[in-house]
């Protein structure tokens, strides 16, 4: 993904530099009237000698379109890279929470002095209760610890 972003960014820079170069060349001939906006909107004719004029705006309009397309592509690649990075961070965070839960459960079992049989049964009990919690059934089993 990073390679695609780098390539797209580089192409955008190349097209932009070429547009600037062509506009600078046109300004040498036509002066300040030769602008990107004027080229993009209307036909620009450059005298070539002997009364012959050549259309000059098509090449620059093509570059403007290429640059615009490449900028859009760069935005899409960048958005995907950001989304992929966020998804990866979410996965790492979820894995870390799972590790912390396992460590916490181990410490609880140690503190309670559970027998070997109780330790073996505990993972099934936890899975069942987590499934119940996800389904919403756990709300019916909520106990107010102050009433115990």
Key terms:
148 residues; mainly alpha; 4 helices; 2 strands; 75% helix
Molecular structure report:
The chain is mainly α and 148 residues long. It has one domain (2-140). The chain is 75% helix and 6% strand. The protein contains 4 helices and 2 strands, in the order ααββαα. It has helices at 2-30, 36-41, 57-112, 116-135, and strands at 45-49, 52-55. The chain has a two-stranded antiparallel sheet with strand order 1-2. Strand 1 (45-49) and strand 2 (52-55) form a beta hairpin. Helix 1 runs antiparallel to helix 3 (57-112). The protein is rod-shaped and about 105 Å long. The chain starts with a helix and ends in a 13-residue tail after the last helix. The model has no long low-confidence stretch (mean pLDDT 80).
Gyration radius from CA atoms, angstroms: 33 Å
- Structural class, please? mainly alpha
Tertiary shape: rod-shaped
Mean pLDDT: 80
What is the tally of beta strands? 2
Strand order of the largest sheet: 1-2
What is the count of helical runs? 4
Elements, N to C (H/E): HHEEHH
User: How far apart are the termini?
Assistant: 57 Å
Whole-number total of structural domains: 1
Q: What ranges have pLDDT less than 50 throughout 5 or more consecutive residues?
A: none
What is the helix content? over 70%
Task: Bin the strand percentage.
Answer: 5-15%
Largest sheet: 2 strands, antiparallel
How would the blueprint of this fold be written?
Elements (H helix, E strand, L loop, with lengths): L1 H29 L5 H6 L3 E5 L2 E4 L1 H56 L3 H20 L13
Antiparallel strand pairs: 1-2
């Amino acid at each position: 993904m990073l390679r695609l972003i780098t390539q797209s960014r580089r192409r955008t820079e190349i097209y932009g530099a070429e547009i600037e170069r062509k506009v600078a060349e046109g300004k040498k001939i036509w002066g300040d009237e030769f602008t990107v906006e004027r080229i993009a909107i209307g036909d620009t004719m450059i005298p070539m000698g002997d009364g012959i004029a050549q259309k000059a705006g098509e090449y620059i309009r093509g570059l403007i379109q290429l640059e615009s397309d490449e900028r859009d592509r760069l935005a899409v690649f960048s958005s995907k890279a950001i989304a992929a990075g966020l998804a990866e961070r979410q996965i790492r965070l979820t894995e870390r929470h799972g590790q912390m839960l396992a460590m916490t459960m181990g410490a609880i079992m140690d503190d309670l002095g559970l027998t070997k049989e109780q330790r073996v049964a505990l993972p099934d009990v936890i899975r069942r209760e987590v499934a119940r919690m996800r389904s919403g059934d756990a709300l019916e089993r909520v106990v107010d610890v102050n009433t115990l």
